[in-house]
Amino acid sequence: MENWDEIRTAYQVARLGTVSGAAEVLGVHHATVIRHIDALEKRLGAKLFQRHARGYTATEAGRDLLAVAQTTEEQFAHLASRIKGQGETVSGELVVTSIAGVSDLLTPVMVSFQDAWPEVRVRFLTDMRVFRLDYGEAHVAIRAGTGPEEPDNVVQPLTRIRWALYATRAYVDRHGHPGSEAGFQGHRFVCTDAETTKAPFHRWLRSMVQPEQVVYAATEPAALEDAVKQGAGIGFMAVHRAANDADLIEILPPRAEWETPLRIVTHVDLHRTLKVQAFLTHLKEAAKSWKFCG
Amino acid sequence: MENWDEIRTAYQVARLGTVSGAAEVLGVHHATVIRHIDALEKRLGAKLFQRHARGYTATEAGRDLLAVAQTTEEQFAHLASRIKGQGETVSGELVVTSIAGVSDLLTPVMVSFQDAWPEVRVRFLTDMRVFRLDYGEAHVAIRAGTGPEEPDNVVQPLTRIRWALYATRAYVDRHGHPGSEAGFQGHRFVCTDAETTKAPFHRWLRSMVQPEQVVYAATEPAALEDAVKQGAGIGFMAVHRAANDADLIEILPPRAEWETPLRIVTHVDLHRTLKVQAFLTHLKEAAKSWKFCG
DNA sequence: CGTTTTCTGTGCATCCCTGCACAGCGAGAA
DNA sequence: TTCTCGCTGTGCAGGGATGCACAGAAAACG
Asked: Distance (Å, rounded) from C-alpha B293 to C-alpha B260?
């Protein structure tokens, strides 16, 4: 049963009883309707209509087709209204992906967004692998740095994460406060283990201190943060995260060149939808009130 | 939501995940598939798929379409198998129409046919108006005489109804037996009221007797038969019907020129179907055993 | 890392579907 | 009856959908 258009044509003929009437409803010439019916009957090997000069009357098979196509048209109409309307309502799933490090920033935003639009089910994905927008894995991605993006992605700047050097009060009590980078000698540092890190502050730190001064290294950012908090040494932490911990003492204040930009990335197809737009405005509005960020 | 073929195309793409795969299944070029998707999305104003070099993945709207079209395809497949199979099975309705006068001949045939094919529901229509085959009102019509038929009707001879003159035993006791048409004078006759009757025996009777000898006239054949049975006079009756009544005495034996042919008429479209063919063979077989018929 | 495969996407030529016009026919009205 | 209207049905011409070929890109594989 190929060629669904012919079924649709036959449905209108069965419903209206005349070829001309069906042609008018379908917006085609009545000759087209006749040819569709002929082709469909030939393919089925059975007559759908009794032909007479006054119109077409459906046979038993034609009435069967009428009933089936009737519900089909209703189903398609409902489908079309759902699809057309879905871009204009804020409902369904909203999939957001980001690096785990900004979870504490994003989570309140998404909770309040879900509160503002109860129809929305939020899924927040943080994983080592980068979720791909072009496979439809996420609607919105929050990415760090300035990596290259695919052409179909629309990129918007969100904010800048500010970083500073911290150590625990216990560390300072024991090893003293270096004051500035000039006093780094003899101090112990926490830094990433990856040689090819793209984080500017880690590159800066590696260039400032001797390799043997890095007494604690890890690949996972969260592990580095834990190490600083446990007093392993002096290390970089995001300002907004360090602010929550009264035990941390700022070793060096944040600098502009250490900042890492956060970008909002969406696929161009989904960027236009009202759901994504609503979340983006909500996110940007929330970002204005973020303290300790650029 | 016009153009159901595009929905079918989108359904295959959503199901298989690639344009090329859908094109192969649909038996069209993959460029056609791309154009169908583009046209459908443009008309809906929403994206159904995320495009990437490795294939198409359905969006939320695309998955919705997939579910709807899935059931649609199943429905259409079932419809096609029903329609294709219906011509090859003896089931459903069988509508037979005839004049009321042969009801006693046809009814046993239809009952035994319904017994042989329990799937069949028989509808037997006898009405003053002639049911039209080209409007699909009946599958098989039993017609009398040799009236003109429409070109799309296929006509087959069934049998010949034999007619004879009868009177009741009471009538003969009172008025005597005319012996032959030479002795008709003074006798009382039952004949049709219609001047333009096409029945040959009625025309013969009108030419043989004086108008005042027709003491009982009616338009309905059944009413004429009742009049003869009640002893109103001498009148024509079908031989097979008079044979059931022992009270009737044959006044004149049947003649060849009085016979009325019965024809089986079917519409050409329905004539080919197995259901109609089965009934026709069944009817002709039964007609062989009809007594008192030519 | 280079090669191969596979899939998408587009310009162009072709073909089939469609629209048009007219004939034919049956039905209903005057 | 005759007239008129509406619907079906078909040959012909045009246009839009289709197929083809090729480019480009990304993933898979050795």
From this structure: 10
CA distance A135 to chain B (A): 6
Domain boundaries A4-85, corresponding CATH code: 1.10.10.10
Residues of B within 8 A of A50 (CB-CB) are 134-136, 267, 269
DSSP string, A114-182: HHH-TTEEEEEE--SSPPPTTTTS-SEEEEETT----TTEEEEEEEEE-EEEEEEHHHHHHH----SGG
Range(s) of chain B covered by CATH 1.10.10.10? 4-85
Q: Is the pLDDT of residue A128 over 70?
A: no
pLDDT digits (tens, 9 = 90+) for A226-281: 999 998 899 999 999 898 889 999 999 999 999 989 999 888 778 888 889 999 99
d(CA A258, CA A202): 9
DSSP secondary structure letters along A108-127: HHHHHHHHH-TTEEEEEE--
In angstroms, the separation between the Cα of residue A280 and the nearest Cα of chain B is 19
Q: CATH says B92-160+260-287 is which class?
A: alpha beta
What are B234's two structure tokens?
């001498």
pLDDT tens column, B253-280:
999 999 989 999 988 878 888 889 999 9
- Alpha-carbon B235 to chain mean position: 32
Within chain B, which residue ranges are assigned CATH 3.40.190.10?
92-160+260-287, 163-258
Lowest-confidence region among A14-18, B123-127, B253-257: B123-127
A71 CB neighbours in chain B (<8 A) are: 75
Q: Which of B6, B83, B150 to mutate to test the interface with A (most CBs of A within 10 A)?
A: B83
B67 CA to C7 C1' distance (Å): 25
Nucleotide nearest to B16 (CA to C1'): C7
Q: Does domain B163-258 have CATH number 3.40.190.10?
A: yes
More confident residue, A131 or B70: B70
Condensed to tens digits (0 to 9), the pLDDT of residues A170-228 reads: 999 999 899 888 888 889 999 987 776 778 898 899 888 888 888 898 878 888 899 99
